[in-house]
Input
Amino acid sequence: MSIKHKSKKEPNKLKPGHAKGVWYPIATWFGCGLSPLMSGTVGSLGALPLGFVIQYYFGNFALFAASMVAFAVGTWASNKYLEHMESGEDPGEIVVDEVAGQWLTLCVLFPTWQSYLIGFLLFRTFDIFKPWPVSVADRKIKGGFGVMFDDILAGVYPVLIFLLILVEAHVFGSGKALLPLMNFLGGSYVH
Output
Protein backbone atom coordinates (compact mmCIF):
# COMPACT_ATOMS: atom_id res chain seq x y z
CA MET A 1 0.00 0.00 0.00
CA SER A 2 1.19 3.49 -0.75
CA ILE A 3 -0.07 6.82 0.46
CA LYS A 4 -0.70 9.27 -2.35
CA HIS A 5 -1.40 12.92 -1.67
CA LYS A 6 -2.73 14.84 -4.65
CA SER A 7 -2.62 18.39 -3.26
CA LYS A 8 -0.15 21.00 -4.37
CA LYS A 9 0.38 24.59 -3.28
CA GLU A 10 -0.56 26.11 -6.64
CA PRO A 11 -3.30 24.97 -9.01
CA ASN A 12 -2.40 23.93 -12.54
CA LYS A 13 -2.47 26.55 -15.25
CA LEU A 14 -4.26 26.47 -18.58
CA LYS A 15 -2.18 25.50 -21.57
CA PRO A 16 -1.58 28.44 -23.91
CA GLY A 17 -4.53 28.96 -26.26
CA HIS A 18 -6.96 26.90 -24.15
CA ALA A 19 -10.01 28.10 -22.22
CA LYS A 20 -11.87 26.71 -19.23
CA GLY A 21 -15.26 25.24 -20.03
CA VAL A 22 -18.08 23.63 -18.09
CA TRP A 23 -15.72 20.70 -17.47
CA TYR A 24 -13.60 22.79 -15.07
CA PRO A 25 -16.12 23.30 -12.23
CA ILE A 26 -17.20 19.67 -12.59
CA ALA A 27 -13.64 18.32 -12.44
CA THR A 28 -12.78 20.52 -9.43
CA TRP A 29 -16.22 19.91 -7.86
CA PHE A 30 -17.05 23.61 -7.89
CA GLY A 31 -13.71 24.67 -6.47
CA CYS A 32 -13.20 22.01 -3.78
CA GLY A 33 -10.18 20.71 -5.69
CA LEU A 34 -8.51 24.11 -5.52
CA SER A 35 -7.89 23.69 -1.80
CA PRO A 36 -4.13 24.01 -1.18
CA LEU A 37 -4.27 21.25 1.44
CA MET A 38 -5.90 17.82 1.25
CA SER A 39 -7.89 18.52 -1.90
CA GLY A 40 -9.16 14.93 -2.02
CA THR A 41 -10.53 15.18 1.51
CA VAL A 42 -12.08 18.56 0.73
CA GLY A 43 -13.65 17.03 -2.41
CA SER A 44 -15.10 14.16 -0.36
CA LEU A 45 -16.49 16.65 2.16
CA GLY A 46 -17.93 18.67 -0.73
CA ALA A 47 -19.79 15.57 -1.92
CA LEU A 48 -21.65 15.06 1.35
CA PRO A 49 -24.35 17.80 1.24
CA LEU A 50 -25.69 16.98 -2.23
CA GLY A 51 -25.30 13.26 -1.55
CA PHE A 52 -27.39 13.64 1.59
CA VAL A 53 -30.14 15.54 -0.25
CA ILE A 54 -30.27 12.94 -3.03
CA GLN A 55 -30.36 10.03 -0.59
CA TYR A 56 -32.77 11.59 1.90
CA TYR A 57 -35.37 12.63 -0.68
CA PHE A 58 -34.92 10.00 -3.38
CA GLY A 59 -33.37 6.96 -1.66
CA ASN A 60 -30.28 4.80 -1.75
CA PHE A 61 -30.69 3.67 -5.34
CA ALA A 62 -30.87 7.30 -6.46
CA LEU A 63 -27.55 7.97 -4.73
CA PHE A 64 -26.06 4.90 -6.44
CA ALA A 65 -27.34 6.21 -9.79
CA ALA A 66 -25.91 9.66 -8.99
CA SER A 67 -22.56 8.00 -8.27
CA MET A 68 -22.61 6.34 -11.69
CA VAL A 69 -23.61 9.61 -13.38
CA ALA A 70 -20.78 11.38 -11.51
CA PHE A 71 -18.43 8.65 -12.74
CA ALA A 72 -19.49 9.09 -16.39
CA VAL A 73 -19.56 12.90 -16.34
CA GLY A 74 -16.41 12.95 -14.22
CA THR A 75 -14.55 10.81 -16.76
CA TRP A 76 -15.45 13.32 -19.48
CA ALA A 77 -14.56 16.34 -17.30
CA SER A 78 -11.28 14.73 -16.19
CA ASN A 79 -10.30 14.02 -19.80
CA LYS A 80 -11.02 17.66 -20.68
CA TYR A 81 -9.01 18.85 -17.68
CA LEU A 82 -6.05 16.71 -18.68
CA GLU A 83 -6.35 17.97 -22.26
CA HIS A 84 -6.51 21.69 -21.40
CA MET A 85 -4.41 22.07 -18.26
CA GLU A 86 -0.70 21.78 -17.54
CA SER A 87 -0.97 18.84 -15.19
CA GLY A 88 0.22 15.36 -14.39
CA GLU A 89 -1.68 12.11 -14.82
CA ASP A 90 -3.96 12.58 -11.77
CA PRO A 91 -3.76 16.20 -10.68
CA GLY A 92 -4.91 17.18 -7.21
CA GLU A 93 -7.44 19.68 -8.52
CA ILE A 94 -9.59 16.92 -10.02
CA VAL A 95 -11.84 15.79 -7.15
CA VAL A 96 -15.00 14.69 -8.97
CA ASP A 97 -13.51 11.20 -8.60
CA GLU A 98 -13.83 11.57 -4.81
CA VAL A 99 -17.47 12.59 -5.27
CA ALA A 100 -18.31 9.45 -7.26
CA GLY A 101 -16.47 7.16 -4.84
CA GLN A 102 -17.88 8.84 -1.73
CA TRP A 103 -21.45 8.57 -3.04
CA LEU A 104 -20.91 4.92 -3.89
CA THR A 105 -19.85 4.26 -0.30
CA LEU A 106 -22.80 6.19 1.14
CA CYS A 107 -25.46 4.57 -1.05
CA VAL A 108 -25.57 1.47 1.19
CA LEU A 109 -25.87 3.47 4.42
CA PHE A 110 -28.58 5.46 6.15
CA PRO A 111 -28.78 9.21 5.52
CA THR A 112 -27.68 10.13 9.07
CA TRP A 113 -24.70 12.09 10.34
CA GLN A 114 -23.37 8.94 12.01
CA SER A 115 -23.44 6.90 8.82
CA TYR A 116 -21.97 9.75 6.82
CA LEU A 117 -19.12 10.12 9.31
CA ILE A 118 -18.29 6.40 9.19
CA GLY A 119 -18.69 6.29 5.39
CA PHE A 120 -16.51 9.38 4.96
CA LEU A 121 -13.74 7.98 7.16
CA LEU A 122 -13.79 4.54 5.53
CA PHE A 123 -13.79 5.92 1.98
CA ARG A 124 -10.95 8.35 2.72
CA THR A 125 -8.92 5.56 4.34
CA PHE A 126 -9.23 3.27 1.32
CA ASP A 127 -8.68 6.16 -1.11
CA ILE A 128 -5.52 7.35 0.65
CA PHE A 129 -3.91 3.97 1.35
CA LYS A 130 -5.01 2.42 -1.95
CA PRO A 131 -4.97 -1.33 -1.20
CA TRP A 132 -4.89 -3.81 -4.08
CA PRO A 133 -6.49 -3.50 -6.68
CA VAL A 134 -6.99 0.25 -6.11
CA SER A 135 -3.21 0.77 -6.22
CA VAL A 136 -2.91 -1.16 -9.49
CA ALA A 137 -5.72 0.86 -11.10
CA ASP A 138 -4.13 4.08 -9.86
CA ARG A 139 -0.77 3.20 -11.46
CA LYS A 140 -1.81 1.44 -14.66
CA ILE A 141 -5.04 3.03 -15.93
CA LYS A 142 -4.50 6.45 -17.46
CA GLY A 143 -6.65 9.34 -18.64
CA GLY A 144 -9.98 10.47 -17.25
CA PHE A 145 -11.15 6.91 -16.80
CA GLY A 146 -8.09 6.11 -14.70
CA VAL A 147 -8.57 9.24 -12.58
CA MET A 148 -12.12 8.12 -11.79
CA PHE A 149 -11.80 4.34 -11.63
CA ASP A 150 -9.43 4.00 -8.67
CA ASP A 151 -11.81 6.05 -6.52
CA ILE A 152 -14.77 3.89 -7.52
CA LEU A 153 -12.72 0.87 -6.45
CA ALA A 154 -11.88 2.62 -3.16
CA GLY A 155 -15.62 3.18 -2.68
CA VAL A 156 -16.33 -0.52 -3.18
CA TYR A 157 -14.29 -1.58 -0.13
CA PRO A 158 -16.60 0.06 2.47
CA VAL A 159 -19.63 -1.28 0.59
CA LEU A 160 -18.20 -4.80 0.85
CA ILE A 161 -17.51 -4.32 4.57
CA PHE A 162 -21.11 -3.27 5.22
CA LEU A 163 -22.49 -6.13 3.11
CA LEU A 164 -20.26 -8.69 4.84
CA ILE A 165 -21.48 -7.47 8.23
CA LEU A 166 -25.10 -7.87 7.13
CA VAL A 167 -24.50 -11.32 5.62
CA GLU A 168 -22.66 -12.45 8.74
CA ALA A 169 -25.55 -11.25 10.91
CA HIS A 170 -28.06 -13.16 8.78
CA VAL A 171 -26.07 -16.38 8.35
CA PHE A 172 -24.75 -16.67 11.89
CA GLY A 173 -27.74 -15.12 13.63
CA SER A 174 -25.81 -12.30 15.27
CA GLY A 175 -28.39 -9.70 14.22
CA LYS A 176 -29.18 -8.81 17.83
CA ALA A 177 -25.51 -8.08 18.45
CA LEU A 178 -25.66 -5.60 15.57
CA LEU A 179 -28.62 -3.67 16.96
CA PRO A 180 -26.47 -1.12 18.83
CA LEU A 181 -24.41 -0.52 15.68
CA MET A 182 -27.53 -0.23 13.50
CA ASN A 183 -29.13 2.12 16.02
CA PHE A 184 -26.00 4.27 16.02
CA LEU A 185 -25.73 4.36 12.23
CA GLY A 186 -29.41 4.56 11.42
CA GLY A 187 -30.92 6.49 14.26
CA SER A 188 -34.64 6.80 13.66
CA TYR A 189 -34.41 4.80 10.40
CA VAL A 190 -34.18 1.48 12.24
CA HIS A 191 -36.91 2.00 14.84
User: Anything to note?
Assistant: The chain is about 65% helix and 0% strand. The CA atoms of residues 30 and 63 lie 19 Å apart.
